[in-house]
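Appendix B. Raw example, untouched.
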Amino acid sequence: MKREILPDGTLSTGDREIEPDEAAVITRIFRDYADGLSARSIAAALNAEAVPAPQSGKGTGVWNPSTVSGNIKRGTGILNN
């Protein structure tokens, strides 16, 4: 999140800022899925390459198939967003 000092001296509420390394992982996930790889195989490859998993403050810190595909009813997972 990017915060700036506004002309009146207050802080902005924060704008989202793209993190290039994280964006590359997201792009890769969508590309791999479009190429026919399953969420399970994508997660396994990311773990094998020690790609940092999203940090939510809970969980194991590794990629799981549910991190990639998620649950459509709950709107979770990278591919559902």
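End of appendix B.
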